Amino acid sequence: MATTTATITLSSADLTSQALSITSTATLYKAGTTVGLDQTTGLTRSKFAAAQSNATLISAGSYDDNTAGKVYVKNVGSSSDDYFTVELGASNIVLGRLYGGDWMFIPYEGEQDIDISSTGTNMELEYMVIYQAA
Amino acid sequence: MATLTPTLTLTSTDASSDDLALSVTDSLEITSPSVGLSKISVDTTGANNIIQPNTDGQTYYVFVRHTGVDASGSTVTTTLNIEKTGDVIFGKLAAEEWAWFPCGGASHGIQLQSSSGTIVAEYAYWTKG
């Protein structure tokens, strides 16, 4: 059984009068089990020569529905002006924006595409899906 | 302006033939408002559990964690939906799992919903400076 762990640390010395330090670790299991997720796309890097509009990044058709995958996406650029907009499903509901250096890590059921739009040329991102086989 | 540093570490020695050891960090400029680490007892109606209500053009960085217990403190294995307001689900957290994502720039906030009974969730959000 594969065992994959995801740890987040959130820290700040100056957000408030008390330093912030939050750490949380999760072992990534298949839905409803304590069996580890055993499939991954590997870390993939994509460069977009032109600005994108509602382009499919992660296709739900490649994954079983109602599963317990995880999605990691990072804007590997450094611009504080250009950003990727991450969108959900056929209606392209906006989740949020990833500016240069920003990353996200979310659960993924495999039921909706994850699309991206971008604001500039030659922008790059990297992503990975960790998921479960049927 | 304050700085928030989120760091992700993904590790596995057996998910593939090549060990997974991913570590990424970021440096985020943060402005007001922010909501520090908070707890909420989430029920089965998402609209009752809106944790990030703003629908302006700002970007917010959101942390959500399923604590693994219900409102009475009993262990639960039910899943915690993370949704855009309007009941647009985009993922489910199992007990002890967490999520980190940007939201905003559109007309939806973030809400949580229990798949059954109650689930105590932790959350926080910060506004991009």
Question: What does this entry look like structurally?
Answer:
Chain A is mainly beta and 134 residues long. Chain A has one domain (37-131): Jelly Rolls (Sandwich), CATH 2.60.120.10. Chain A has strands at residues 4-12, 20-27, 39-40, 44-48, 55-58, 69-75, 83-88, 93-99, 103-108, 114-118, 123-131. In chain A, a hairpin with a 7-residue loop joins strand 1 and strand 2. Chain A is globular and about 40 Å long. Chain B has 129 residues and is an all-beta fold. Helix content of chain B is 0%, strand content 59%. Chain B has strands at residues 2-12, 20-25, 28-42, 50-52, 59-66, 80-84, 88-93, 98-104, 110-114, 119-128. In chain B, strand 6 and strand 7 form a beta hairpin.
Considering the chains and any ligands shown, give keywords for the structure.
heterodimer, A: 134 residues, mainly beta, Jelly Rolls, five-stranded antiparallel sheet, four-stranded antiparallel sheet, 51% strand, globular, B: 129 residues, six-stranded antiparallel sheet, 59% strand
Judged by helices, strands and strand pairing, the structural class of chain B is mainly beta
Helix content of chain A: under 10%
Multimeric state of these chains? heterodimer
Question: How far is it from the N-terminal to the C-terminal residue of chain A, by CA?
Answer: 15 Å
Q: Please count the helical segments of chain A.
A: 0
- Quote the CATH topology of chain A: Jelly Rolls
Query: What is the H/E order of chain A?
Result: EEEEEEEEEEE
Round the mean pLDDT of chain A to the nearest integer and report it.
95
Strand residue percentage of chain B: over 45%
Into which percentage range does the β-strand content of chain A fall? over 45%
Kindly report the spatial arrangement of strands forming the biggest sheet of chain B.
Answer: 2-1-3-10-5-8
By CATH, the architecture of chain B is named Sandwich
Based on Cα principal axes, name the global outline of chain B.
Answer: globular
Going by CATH, what is the homologous superfamily of chain A?
Answer: Jelly Rolls
The biggest sheet of chain A, with number of strands, parallel, antiparallel or mixed sense and barrel status, is:
5 strands, antiparallel
Number of domains of chain A: 1
Low-confidence stretches of chain A: none
